[in-house]
Every structure is written in C-alpha cells, then in structure tokens.
C-alpha cells in the first residue's frame, strides 16, 4: 500500500516537472525555438490546425525562425496566426516560407521574463507540495484505519518527503538553467 502510494505520488510529481519544462519553453529567450509556436493554430480548410502539423521550422540564425508550410496555399494563414499571436513579432512572407525575426531582448525585458519564470517555478513547487499532502493524507488515513502500522507510516512519510525534496530540487535546477539562458546575451 505504501509503495503504491509512493509510486503514484512520484508519477504525479514527475508530470508536474514535465509541465514546468513545457511552461518554461514558452518563455522567450534570445533564441528562436519551435517550442515558441506550440500553442499557435492556423485555419486550414476551415479547421484550426496546430502549426506543427502544417509546416517545418528552421532557425538559420539565433533570432530568426523560418516556417515552411507543407502546402503553399496556407502560407498567408500561418503568417496571420503568427502576427495575431502574443509573441510580439511581425512575420513576413519570404518566398515559400514565413520569416519571423525576434527583436533583441532588453535588460528590463529579460528581468521581467525571469520574474515570470520564477512564478512558474513556484507554481510547479505548489503542485508538487499538493501531491505530497495528498499522499500524506492517504498514509495517515491508512494508519488510522489500522491498515498499516505506525513504523510503516513514518517510513512512508519519510519516503514521500524525500521524493518531494528531490522534485523541488529539480524545479530549482530548471529555474537556474532558464535564468542563465535568459541573461545570456
């Protein structure tokens, strides 16, 4: 029972880490990455379709992204989707592709992004701690009901605390790496 609870909480905490990684990848750094376009959709024959399904992404320079559609007919829709997004860029059709040039980040903007990333990291830690609390409640209830002994309950609680510490440290490492990436000029 304890092992099952720990395995379950470990899985939930790992999913919180994956969500944090995804959240961090959405925050713009000085480099253009395809992950910045993950949430964008363009109209393709009347259906909103994710850009990853409509085009390939190539970054010839650190601050430039070339989006080459598989179907040349949807190039204007892709350009419109990027222009209307919250990326703050002005795309241009360049032959058979959409060229997106990201402006250089100012020092103030970098610091603002760091604050955003810290908030996202804290959100991930809150989710991890909520999973810890839920697992602790399961163990305390099992101890109260007499399903497990006091020693087993303490051992289980210690293991859950260790897992929580491990996963919050992973969030801190991700945050540290993202901050370094943001401050890189």
From TrEMBL:
<dbReference type="GO" id="GO:0043023">
    <property type="term" value="F:ribosomal large subunit binding"/>
</dbReference>
<dbReference type="GO" id="GO:0005737">
    <property type="term" value="C:cytoplasm"/>
</dbReference>
<dbReference type="GO" id="GO:0006415">
    <property type="term" value="P:translational termination"/>
</dbReference>
<comment type="similarity">
    <text>Belongs to the RRF family.</text>
</comment>
<protein>
    <recommendedName>
        <fullName>Ribosome-recycling factor</fullName>
    </recommendedName>
</protein>
<feature type="domain" description="Ribosome recycling factor">
    <location>
        <begin position="21"/>
        <end position="183"/>
    </location>
</feature>
<dbReference type="InterPro" id="IPR023584">
    <property type="entry name" value="Ribosome_recyc_fac_dom"/>
</dbReference>
<dbReference type="InterPro" id="IPR002661">
    <property type="entry name" value="Ribosome_recyc_fac"/>
</dbReference>
<comment type="function">
    <text>Responsible for the release of ribosomes from messenger RNA at the termination of protein biosynthesis. May increase the efficiency of translation by recycling ribosomes from one round of translation to another.</text>
</comment>
<dbReference type="InterPro" id="IPR036191">
    <property type="entry name" value="RRF_sf"/>
</dbReference>
<keyword id="KW-0963">Cytoplasm</keyword>
<dbReference type="Pfam" id="PF01765">
    <property type="entry name" value="RRF"/>
</dbReference>
<keyword id="KW-0648">Protein biosynthesis</keyword>
């Amino acid at each position: 029972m304890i092992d099952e609870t720990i395995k379950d909480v470990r899985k939930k905490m790992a999913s919180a880490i994956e969500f944090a990684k995804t959240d961090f990848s959405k925050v713009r750094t000085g480099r253009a990455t395809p992950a910045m376009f993950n949430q964008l959709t363009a109209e393709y024959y009347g259906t909103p379709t994710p850009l990853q399904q409509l085009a390939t992404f190539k970054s010839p320079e650190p601050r430039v992204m070339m989006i080459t559609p598989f179907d040349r007919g949807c190039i204007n829709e892709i350009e419109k989707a990027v222009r209307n997004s919250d990326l703050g860029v002005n795309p241009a059709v360049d032959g058979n592709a959409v060229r997106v040039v990201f402006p250089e980040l100012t020092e103030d903007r970098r610091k603002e992004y760091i604050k955003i990333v810290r908030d996202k990291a804290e959100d991930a830690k809150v989710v991890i701690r909520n999973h810890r609390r839920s697992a602790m409640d399961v163990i305390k209830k099992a101890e109260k009901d007499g399903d497990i002994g006091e020693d087993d309950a303490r051992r289980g609680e210690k293991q859950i605390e260790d897992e929580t510490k491990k996963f919050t440290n992973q969030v801190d490492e991700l945050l540290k790496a993202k901050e370094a990436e943001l401050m890189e000029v």
